[in-house]
Write a structure and sequence with these properties.
The complex is a heterodimer of chains A (about 180) and B (about 140).
Chain A lengths: L6 H9 L1 H7 L14 H6 L7 H26 L4 H21 L21 H25 L3 H22 L4
Helix pairs in contact in A: 1-4, 4-5, 4-6, 5-7, 6-7
Chain B lengths: L5 H29 L4 H21 L19 H25 L2 H20 L14
Helix pairs in contact in B: 1-2, 1-3, 2-4, 3-4
The chains are: A mainly alpha (about 180), B mainly alpha (about 140).
């Protein structure tokens, strides 16, 4: 289950910090609002991982996993493609928004490969897998929205959580 | 820092309360039109009323009171406009709660985030389309 950031992504998040400090701005996300505190930390010779950047890395990994899961289910169950299309597009939009929230020049380093939930061969079971993944995603995003330091970033996560909750309802309505 | 100070937080809760006052008013109209055996309308009314009461408790003595009446965006003369009004209410509340998430912390933020999800899901019942970013105009 790829919801947790791997050690690699956390390290990647740490690596991009100096860039965030240097530019001190981001579109809507983690790095911008607290850039003012960064020089002190640097002066003190510490390089702490910005907690929101670590969060961003974690959410990016989970979002990419949702995109892959939908792609995989659509590939295995072509009859579901039309109904799953809007949901897949929503997760892609989430991934893009997270990319926009990253500090300029930074890459949170979400791996493109990684474990996706096993896709069952049966259509009904595949839909159940998607529902479970969306429910988990909604729960996790709600929790992470509470952890974010940036209010703007928290709002993005809470909105993504609401989208996943909507997807559960949509999936309930898909004919198995 | 980032608009999450106490005054801004309180203001965000007040805005949510104003939205819930209006929602309770609107759902009273929706319920009257759809009738007492429309369980979705009754449930939605109860949820918004409970959130209104919870927000009043969270804000305390300075909680904004309800207006005596609210302008409805269109005439609610039958079931179709009643459902459309309910959909509109959920959309509006989702936007207000998303805004509140950005301006609150800790328990207040958790409350706003859960309410946002509830409005997004409840809106589907009334015909709102699922959207990638409920409550947000631009992510």
């Amino acid at each position: 289950m790829p919801a947790r950031p791997s050690r690699r992504t956390v390290l990647a998040a740490a690596v991009i910090l100096p860039a965030a400090a240097a530019t001190g701005c981001s579109l809507s996300g983690p790095a911008g609002e607290r850039a003012a505190t960064r020089p002190d930390e640097e002066a003190a010779g510490r390089s702490e991982v910005d907690p929101d950047v670590a969060l961003l890395a974690q959410v990016t990994v989970a979002t990419e996993a949702m995109v892959r899961l939908y792609r995989e289910v659509s590939r295995r169950h072509r009859g579901l493609r039309r109904e799953l299309g809007p949901l897949l597009r929503a997760h892609r939009a989430h991934a893009r928004a997270l990319g926009d929230a990253a500090p300029p020049g930074g890459d949170v380093g979400a791996p493109r490969t990684g474990a996706v939930d096993e896709i069952p061969g049966g259509r009904r079971a595949a839909l159940r897998t998607l529902r479970r993944a969306e429910r988990r995603s909604a729960d996790e995003l709600l929790g992470l929205a509470g952890e974010a330091r940036s209010g703007t970033f928290a709002r993005l996560l809470a909105s993504m959580a609401a989208a996943s909750a909507q997807h559960v309802v949509v999936l309930d309505g898909v004919q198995a | 820092m980032g608009g999450s100070d106490a005054a801004s937080e309180r203001e965000a809760l007040q805005e949510a309360l104003e939205a819930e006052h209006a929602a309770v008013y609107a759902y009273a109209v929706v319920g009257a039109v759809l009738g007492g055996d429309d369980t979705q309308a009754q449930a939605a009314y109860a949820v918004h009323r409970d959130r209104r009461d919870a927000l009043i408790a969270m804000i305390g003595a300075e909680a904004v009171p309800a207006e005596p009446a609210y302008d409805l965006p269109f005439e609610v003369a039958g079931p179709a406009p009643a459902r459309r009004l309910a959909a509109r209410v959920e959309q509006r509340c989702a936007t207000v709660y998303a805004h509140a998430v950005a301006r609150t912390t800790a328990r207040n933020r958790a409350y706003a985030a859960r309410a946002l999800t509830d409005c997004a899901v409840r809106g589907l019942i009334w015909g709102n389309d699922p959207e990638p970013f409920p409550g947000l105009r631009n992510p």
